[in-house]
Amino acid sequence: MENRVSVVIPAFNEENAIGQVLGDLPWDLLSQVVVVDNNSSDKTQEEAQKGGAIVLKEHFQGYGASCLKGINYLLEQELPPDIIVFLDADYSDHPNELPALLAPILQDKFDLVIGSRALGNREKGSMTFPQVFGNWLATSLIRFIYGVRYTDLGPFRAVKTSSLVKLGMCDLTYGWTVEMQVKAAKLGMLVKDVPVSYRQRIGVSKISGTIKGTLLAGYKIITTIFKYR
Ligand SMILES: Nc1nc2c(ncn2[C@@H]2O[C@H](COP(=O)(O)OP(=O)(O)O)[C@@H](O)[C@H]2O)c(=O)[nH]1
Ligand SMILES: [Mg+2]
User: Fold this and answer.
1) Which ligand is nearest to the CA of 216?
2) Within 10 A of 195 (CB to CB), how many other CB atoms are there?
3) Under CATH, which number does the domain 5-227 receive?
4) Is 31 helix (H, G, I), strand (E, B) or coil?
């Protein structure tokens, strides 16, 4: 397999973080880096352009909608990537750990590799208690219902493009990450968790840092697990 790798980064008001995320990516391994700006009211778009990314705009407010926008753009290219990597725009993930996510796909033919914060080094305060508990609950339910062991629903992940297309992703908001994992489990794809580091974000959290975001995300994640069983 050739290894053209592209990156999709959904971003909503991350002007102080996105430049650092882009700066730490291993660009020599990548063909295209796409930042999907989701109605940011700050300078996210300008900072992403300065950092060398292709910037797309998604008007429907949602994490999944933004990821889908990035995927569709990459699929329309003359030479679409073989692998697509997703990560967050808040500098919580460590972009220089990207090669560890690629290795299982390149060497061992895995379809989907999840960067697991549960297996890796988590900076104190980088995840809230509901987030840690929610990930444990969600991964336990997935193990029980689908028989596949995941340790996290983390945002930093790599997937073979051909497998991603087979998943037919459709969640437009918070169910995005778990939808990918349960569909991969259901289809019997080869999936693997690898440890990744996680640190306190730059700027303010829009999801886990708010009660509304936590409740909406938790509800969406649990209902998504049951939806595809
Ligand atoms: N596209 C898009 N991205 C979002 C939205 N809300 C948050 N994000 C991005 O999703 C990532 C995770 O959001 P964050 O606020 O850090 O949530 P947390 O990690 O759960 O605390 C960050 O890169 C955000 O910029 C949204 O409505 N649309
Ligand atoms: Mg975050």
Assistant:
1) 1
2) 15
3) 3.90.550.10
4) strand
Cα end-to-end span (Å), the chain: 32
Residue whose tokens read 């992703």: 169
How far apart are the CA of 206 and the centre of ligand 1, in A?
6
Report the amino acid identity of residue 153. Answer: L
Give the C-alpha separation, 206 to 108, whole Å.
36
Measured in Å, residue 172 CA sits from the centre of ligand 2 at 17
Using CA atoms, how far apart are residues 114 and 212, in angstroms rounded to an integer? Answer: 26
The strand pair at 112-116 and 157-160 is best described as: antiparallel
Q: Which atom of ligand 1 is nearest to the CA of 201?
A: 16
- Distance of CA 107 from the midpoint of ligand 1 (Å): 31
The per-residue pLDDT of the chain, averaged, comes to 97
Q: Provide the 10 A C-beta neighbour count for residue 221.
A: 23
- Tally Cβ neighbours within 10 Å of residue 99: 12
Backbone angles phi, psi at 147, to 5 degrees: 70, 20
**Per-residue pLDDT averaged across 191-219, rounded?**
95
Per residue in 137-164, pLDDT (tens digit) is: 999 999 999 999 999 999 999 999 999 9
Between CA 45 and CA 55 the distance in angstroms is 7
Tokens read off for 73? 């753009």
| Residue 162 vs residues 112, 142, 148, 177: alpha-carbon distances, Å | 11, 23, 21, 17
Interhelix angle 129-146/176-186, nearest 10 degrees? 20
Looking only at the bridges linking them, the beta strands covering 5-11 and 54-57 are unpaired
